[in-house]
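User: I need a structural model of Transcriptional regulator, AbiEi antitoxin, Type IV TA system from Sedimentibacter hydroxybenzoicus DSM 7310 for a docking pre-check later this week. Nothing fancy, just the predicted structure tokens so I can convert them on my end. Input:
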Amino acid sequence: MEQIGYGEHIADTVKNMPYEAAIQTEDIARQLAGAFALPYEKAKTLTNVKLKRMADKGEIQRLQKGVYCQVKQTVFGKATPSTDQVMKKALTEQNGEKIGYESGAFLLNKLGLTTLIPRDMEITTNRHTAKLPDEYHIKLKKPVVTVTNDNWKYLQFIDLAIELKGSHIDAERPKLLLARHAKRQELDILTLIFTARRNYPTKVILPLIDLLMEVNDELTSG
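Assistant: Understood. Predicted structure tokens for Transcriptional regulator, AbiEi antitoxin, Type IV TA system:
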């Protein structure tokens, strides 16, 4: 009966997850371990077996090892969410913690700094060594330091500032867009500078400070 209870718990957990959420074995296993006071490795084994069975039945779809997505029935047959978006969640979040962030030309376009649309979404992630199938339009980048809940916004902004140099920027007031982004993210200027000093080469720091001064001017005047 315990085995059935474990399976039901896993199935219920999966069914209650948002449609576009990444169903990750590690996350489900941690929840199972907590709910039944199980050793994590046992919970992971049980989760692997249950998720595989659900995938074999067509209840969920396997994207890669340890990552699945939802499947729903429509009038046109079975449908799944955008696999790129699901994988993005798996590469940027784990067990409720940030492990990565959007970056590169993809982020420049998303923020309106350029109208050029890159073919691939760039994700800077702790899982940069992950092997993704060729059909995913995702490029992985190694972060300069382990990404956490506390530092990801700062690392992302610094990388964004570095990316600006040499990129095709066609926004009318790019500094204003950066200023608004910094304000939305509630970034602290001193923390930005300290993060840059700790983790990036010296040649990054002075241009970053100059950029921050211009961004601040845009924010106060615009």
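Before docking, keep this in mind: The longest strand covers residues 60-64.
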